[in-house]
Amino acid sequence: MKAPIFIRPLTKDEHSQIQAGLRSSNAFVLRRSQILLASARGERAPAIAKYLGCDDQTVRNAIKGFNIAGLTVLKEGSSRPHRLRTTFTIEAAERLKALLHRSPHDFGLDRGLWTLELAAKISFEQGIIPHKTSVASVR
């Protein structure tokens, strides 16, 4: 069984800022403040999670975040993934750019302008990408 996790001892300034977070209109700041103060009182993560109606891993993440970064844990971070999976490699993106500078007529199409759908189709047919892709990936 893992040892329980608690926040490090709070300074007076940290305690007052966390107390101020209890009056925040932002639900994220309020919940994080509740977690930190409960942990400072010696409550364990599962008990805090049950009381707040959240997952105990959420509580552990807040506690670990505070122990590492301090009060910045009260600021909501980006929800975007840290790494995006891309359909096009850098080389493939360059080849796609070169393809788009040519006329669709060069590829036997009866049009003069590219659409995202056509660019996706032709980039697959020309071997720029290994599988069919969506227009969003081409965009």
Topology, pairings included?
Blueprint: H1 12-21, H2 27-40, H3 45-52, H4 56-69, H5 90-100, H6 116-125, H7 135-138
Question: What does this protein look like?
Answer:
Helices cover 51% and strands 0% of the residues. The chain has 139 residues and is an all-alpha fold. Helix 1 crosses helix 2, helix 2 packs across helix 4 and helix 3 crosses helix 4. The protein is rod-shaped, with a radius of gyration of 26 Å.
Keywords:
single chain, 139 residues, mainly alpha, 7 helices, 51% helix
Main beta-sheet strand count, sense and barrel state? none
Determine the number of helices (DSSP H or I, runs of at least 4 residues): 7
Instruction: Please tell me how large the radius of gyration is.
Output: 26 Å
Mean pLDDT: 88
Q: Share of helix among residues?
A: 40-55%
Low-pLDDT residue intervals, each spanning 5 or more residues:
none
Distance N to C terminus: 49 Å
Number of strands: 0
Which band does the percent of strand residues land in? under 5%
Order of helices and strands: HHHHHHH
